[in-house]
Design goal:
Structural class: mainly alpha
CATH architecture: Orthogonal Bundle
Distance between the termini: 29 Å
Strand order of the largest sheet: 1-3-2
Radius of gyration: 11 Å
Strand content: 5-15%
Number of domains: 1
Shape: globular
Number of strands: 3
Helix content: 40-55%
Oligomer: single chain
Mean pLDDT: 93
Order of helices and strands: HEHHEE
Length: about 80
Amino acid sequence: MNDDAIDEAILSMLAVAKGGWRKVAMVIARVADQMGNDLPAGDDRYDLVAQRVEALVLDGRLAAQGDIKKWRFSEVRRPN
């Protein structure tokens, strides 16, 4: 699995949200479930998706509020 495929899954999921904020934990869980066996097993799958969320925020492809390392207490969305 490459980073581009994970990024696309994250961005596609947030496109459906139509600009609304979504909890980082929910985004990570849904993308990891959607990608299934294409990701590593166990908690590594969630950590990998979390790293890609952080990279998208740093690249300006996602907007964030809160500390995105605290998945349950932060949110992301596509920039306006």
